[in-house]
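Dig into what follows:

_____
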Amino acid sequence: MADLSIQRDGRRWSVDSTGITSLRRPYRIVLDGDNLSANGEAKTFVGVPAIGSAHPSHSGLFVQSYDVEEGREHEKKVIDVIVNYGQRTVETVGEGQSAQSGQVEQWGWSGGEDERELTTAADGTAVLNSAGDVFDSVPTIKSPAPVFTKVVKFETRQSGWSAHRCKVNASDVTIGGEVFAAKTLFCMVAEARVFGDGKWKYRYTIELRHRTNKVKIAGGDSATEIGWDVAIADAGMREKGTDGKLVLIRLPDAETGKPCNVTMPELLDGSGKRIARDSGGTPPTPYNFRFQAYETTTFPAWFYSEPT
């Protein structure tokens, strides 16, 4: 015998001038096997409407959550589930077009991580060896990259959304009261055709992945937030000579003292000249270049605005 789901009497609902705004429907689940205490806390139940599904007779109401209670003692195989229906948030958006109503299905943050080469330390300084030289290779590390997601549906297709895909924010963006600096949000947008959901025909999923990376740029003493840009220490085995032409860097050999070509990159000063070390051998301050890795754009407000 499979688990049995029984729809029970005892509905409760709220009504205003627009009609029914919320509804509670009780179900009773009779388990065939062990109770929830043995199997953990269940999130779905056979025969119970899934979260997000529409009410069969009240348009505009959708399952938002469950209230679950398991029986005690001799009723441990009985589970009472209250299905909570409510209205989804609708917001008005527009970008160079007439205002349209969209139905927000999801808005919020989730955890995430990214991988990057450890070229700069947490304080923004370049990663060098004890002699002040760049490493032949550096480790790849994981760094936090939380993802903001907004899912919204519209009656008609939205124009211009694809122009923001795989780009970063050109200026500060405020999400839920928190300000995110320029170039710290990487955008992905997906469009999907919706069928069988009333007037809603198109669903858009916007993901903004946040990355923070503070680096001391151009020999500066303070760290700069570069986000999704990339910082690389200026180094090489050639430098500009007095005539402006590139020449191999030659330094005295440690044993013979005679000049010879270097075998590893030397730090440069940002203008193509080797950074000379002092007589005590103190490692020089590296000159970090900042390179733009992605195109910038201005995200439309409906990509991240909080539903009211």
